[in-house]
Write a structure and sequence with these properties.
Layout lengths: L7 H13 L28 H9 L4 E7 L5 H17 L4 E5 L4 E6 L5 H9 L4 E6 L2 E4 L2
Antiparallel strand pairs: 1-3, 1-4, 2-3, 4-5
Amino acid sequence: GDIRDYNDADMARLLEQWEKDDDIEEGDLPEHKRPSAPIDFSKLDPGKPESILKMTKKGKTLMMFVTVSGNPTEKETEEITSLWQGSLFNANYDVQRFIVGSDRAIFMLRDGSYAWEIKDFLVSQDRCAEVTLEGQMYPGK
């Protein structure tokens, strides 16, 4: 049947079954169905601090500072970072942007686990001087 044929009681029963059915390995679930906590430290790779940060940031808001190169005006910074935000938005990253100086903007993410992918995108852009994320500075290209 069509999903619309289900009433709330059916849905609740399905959900109960789903929750009982814990045989499914969490890794097989799509990203958004995985529980965000607790962190399984046994799965972490200590040689990759970013993987640890990613897990701790899942579903949490995170901010990164982006500096535009070439001594721009605030208006230029606005335009350039707006283009970057547009590219990220097209790639399905939900990013908010705030201009905080003539050459700086804050990119705010609702789900911090994407931060490193976004940082990688930003530092590859022509006018990106640097990105600061979690107190670490990443120079542009």
